[in-house]
Amino acid sequence: MALTPVLLLACAEKTFNSLLARDPAAPGRLRRLAGKRLLLRLERPSLALLVTFHTQGLGLLHAPQAEETDADAVVEADCEALGSLLAGESLEQLMFSGRLSLRGQTHLLEATRELLMDLDLDWEAALAEWFGDVPAHSLAEGLRRFARFGLRSQHELRADLSEYVFEEARLLPGQAQREVLRDHLTELEVATDRLEARLARLQRKLDARRREPMT
Amino acid sequence: MTKRTTHFGYQEVPVEEKAARVADVFHSVASRYDLMNDLMSLGIHRLWKRLTLERAGVRRGQSVLDIAGGTGDLTLKFSRLVGPSGRVVLADINASMLNVGRDKLLDHGVGGNVEYVQANAECLPFADNTFDCITIAFGLRNVTDKDAALASMARVLKPGGRLLVLEFSKPPHQLLSKVYDEYSFRLLPKMGELVANDADSYRYLAESIRMHPDQETLKGMMERAGLERVEYTNLTGGIVALHRGIKL
Asked: What domains can be seen in chain B, in order of their start residue?
């Protein structure tokens, strides 16, 4: 069991380094980061991870006893905040909302995010290693054409389906109809509130009359 | 007068012959050592070494000695962890293994903070209290006088320094032990013959593993060498154990 977390970290490291090796912009970014280290402390699940950078990639090491002085930057966050950061949410916003704390060289975290999230993978070069330049280019071109066809077909299918459901078969109301209905419902809600207020006032008058002594 | 003997696998050989015989084994397998390790352990030896690295707790600027460092797997990682202000010494008794390790590290762009020393673990050529951390991975069982080697390592460790011994051990589970025996004595020499064209060296590997002290015995040896807080972790069902002791 001692090896399971080690295996997961090794897989993550291998995956990151394989992806970085396919990105033409990565060597320049890694050169700037080489020798730096980032200590990432996650709260839930509790995990201390030391990320080291070198010219060929990065290293991930479980380091529960690592000291802050051993890292150039220390990040403390929970998984959700880290996910938001990787999804592109502003670092300042996460820090000001108290979901992420950062000490040391703050630009190191931005540079790490840029390194990992701005990957522009050269798949064609990877295919060329297996099949050779010309077949790889044909295969990549075919895949690109197929992807474009898939995207176009998806848009067309969505448009056709929407036209059938809203316009031809009228199975569901369209956008305009929904808005008219919402306006009517709002009007009805306001009128009901008014009626309720009038009834309450009449009730109060009736109760007051009942309490007055008979003259 | 009878000559003092020691074990070389299952054979008894004169003490002064063992080092030369072990050297022959490693001269023979040096060029394909990494490939054979991957094949024999199905790549798991990389995880065992990663765990050693984690438990070493090495920091920036520290000095590390990687004894029997062979082809430099641990040295490569340590050199990145200690950074340019730190120092890693890759030591091995065998020149062929050291050459393979040096070439591999240079190919990985590692140079500035790594030194290479051909040395016998029993009499390390370093001053007392020199290193913050010492590792010996899959090397102790090949040493003729293990007690002398452990004492030598304890001597060159700084107070507060850690010694980590990663070595094959004894699986406590009977069934796993039987499967492991079958694998070691039948399959391993065949793989050695196919890949490295050397069945005898890999037969020696299996035999030397069986002759190596078990987890508790090695723990006692480390304590007798002057290390404290000695603990061990069984890995892969006890096929391998990672011992760690601290010099206080």
From this structure: 19-173+202-246 (3.40.50.150)
| Phi-psi map region of A2: left, alpha, beta (phi>0 left; psi -120 to 50 alpha) | alpha
Chain B residues 83-122 within an 8 A CB cutoff of chain A: 83-84, 108-109
- Name the residue ranges covered by the structural domains of chain A: 3-117, 123-172, 173-215
- B41 close contact with A: CB closer than 8 A: no
For chain B, give the number of residues: 248
Rounded distance between C-alpha atoms, residue B95 and residue B81, angstroms: 26
Interface residue A58 vs chain B (CB under 8 A):
no
Query: In angstroms, rounded to a whole number, what is the distance separating the alpha carbons of residues A168 and A154?
Result: 20
Residues in A touching B44 (Cβ below 8 Å): 3
Gyration radius from chain B CA atoms: 17
Q: What is the pLDDT of residues A47-85, one digit of tens each?
A: 899 999 988 899 999 988 888 888 899 999 888 888 888
Return the SS3 of A122: coil
Mean pLDDT by 10 residues, chain B (248 residues): 68 73 69 72 88 92 92 91 93 88 88 90 95 94 91 96 93 87 81 75 78 92 95 92 94
Average pLDDT across chain A, whole number: 88
Neighbours of B209 (CB within 10 A): 20
Candidates 2.120.10.30, 3.40.30.10, 3.40.50.2300, 3.30.1050.10; correct CATH number of A3-117? 3.30.1050.10
Q: Confidence class of residue A151 from pLDDT cuts 50, 70 and 90?
A: very high
Question: How far, in Å, CA of B36 to CA of B197, rounded?
Answer: 11
CA–CA distance, B32 with B192 (Å, rounded to integer): 10
Residue A159, pLDDT > 90, answer: yes
Rounded Cα distance, B195 and B187, in Å: 12
Contact A56 B233 (CB under 8 A): no
* Relative orientation angle of helices A107-117 and A26-33, to the nearest 10 degrees: 160
Question: CA B158 to CA B181: how far, in whole Å?
Answer: 39
Q: Which residue in A3, A59, A67 is closest to B51 by CB distance?
A: A3
- How many other β-carbons are positioned within 10 Å of the β-carbon of residue A181? 11
